[in-house]
Amino acid sequence: MFSFDIQHTEKRYRVGVFHTPHGDVLTPVFMPVGTQATVKAISPRDLTEAGASMILANTYHLYLRPGDQLVARHGGLHNFMAWNAPVLTDSGGFQVFSLSEMRKIDNEGVTFKSHLDGSMHRLTPEKSISIQQNLGADVIMCFDECPPPTDREYNVISMARTHAWAERCRRAHARDDQALFGIVQGGIFRELREQSARAISAMDFPGHGIGGLAVGETKQEMLNTLEWMDAALPVDKPRYLMGVGEPTDLINGVARGMDMFDCALPTRLARHGAAFTATGRINMRNKLYEDDEQPLNPGCACYACRTFTRAYIRHLLHVGEILGLYLMSLHNVHFLIQLMADIRRAIIDSRFEEFAAAWLARYSSVVQR
């Protein structure tokens, strides 16, 4: 039911197809984040037209509301949100550690306080798997702990806990129409990362997440970790770099053997008025674009760029019209999806290194005027 076919490989980067019950996913792939069973401001129809092949939903948030059992009664996420393509759910672990004001971690699980109403909840590996099975995603993730990346002493303790929880998740997982991915932790420490990769790989999951990155370490520390992961993980299974979506990080991740990426960055930036362009981000709230007749990104084929000018979109943002947020969000998501399509084509054509060098040379992640 699940398989991963590598169709073209050169050095560490590769193009593949991840087969799932709800369709094939071409890799490398960027997966838009639909935290609350919706990618903010974008309809499933628009996501399909933009080329999205797989999206994410969030276990923590959907457990709190509307509740995973309600979603199950409505036929699971695919039916509930009218998305008939692959879905991945995270385990809820990152949100427990990043959103909860109060939490208590022990070897059995985590007791945490809801960020919504202050109510107390208990999440264990078994509970996380139960919630994700109710949600019905194609790919679900082991419950793990996301520790501070630079604290070696704590990473030793946390990594052992993550490995034990992965074993418990594997035992609790009962749906053969869902692929359960393990997650590698270990902070920025090579020996810990390699130890974690060996432990998780030995459990024979159909895919592997690389967690605990883009959470406070330097960019070079993240890239170093990906170098180690490329050598430490099986080559015949997809590698999922969790929570990373900056365009330069996507290119650098692919160059280091990563296959799957997700991030809420494109829609978050859109809500703050930032648009991706071929040379970097631009701040569309700036008066500079008040009379600009260009599209957001010249040459972009998304609906926003085919139809509207920067001047019009800047006006929408300036007066607070919802259409502006929709167009910005649609464009940013399309931009990353198209970037991954361009990367796949460059790998197939044996010109990825030239493509990456030219792209990185002209792009700036610093918001321009």
The total count of strands amounts to: 17
Strand order of the largest sheet: 4-14-13-12-11-10-6-5
Low-confidence stretches: none
Indicate the proportion of strand residues.
15-25%
Q: Shape from CA axes?
A: globular
Please describe what this structure looks like.
By secondary structure, the protein is of the alpha/beta class. The chain folds into 2 domains: 3-263, TIM Barrel; 270-368, no CATH class. It has 15 helices and 17 strands. The strands form 4 sheets. Strands 4-14-13-12-11-10-6-5 form an 8-stranded parallel β-sheet. Helix 8 links the parallel strand 11 and strand 12 (208-210). The radius of gyration is 20 Å and the shape is globular. The termini are far apart. The mean pLDDT is 96.
Task: Break the fold down into its secondary structure elements and pairings.
Layout: E1 3-10, E2 13-20, E3 23-27, E4 29-32, H1 44-50, E5 55-57, H2 59-64, H3 68-73, H4 76-80, E6 87-89, H5 93-99, E7 103-105, E8 110-113, E9 120-123, H6 125-135, E10 139-141, H7 152-172, E11 179-184, H8 190-202, E12 208-210, H9 219-232, E13 239-241, H10 247-255, E14 260-263, H11 265-271, E15 274-277, E16 280-283, H12 303-307, H13 310-319, H14 322-348, H15 352-362, E17 364-368
Parallel strand pairs: 4-14, 5-6, 6-10, 10-11, 11-12, 12-13, 13-14, 16-17
Antiparallel strand pairs: 1-2, 2-3, 7-8, 8-9, 15-16
Helix pairs in contact: 6-7, 7-8, 8-9, 10-14, 10-15, 11-14, 13-14, 14-15
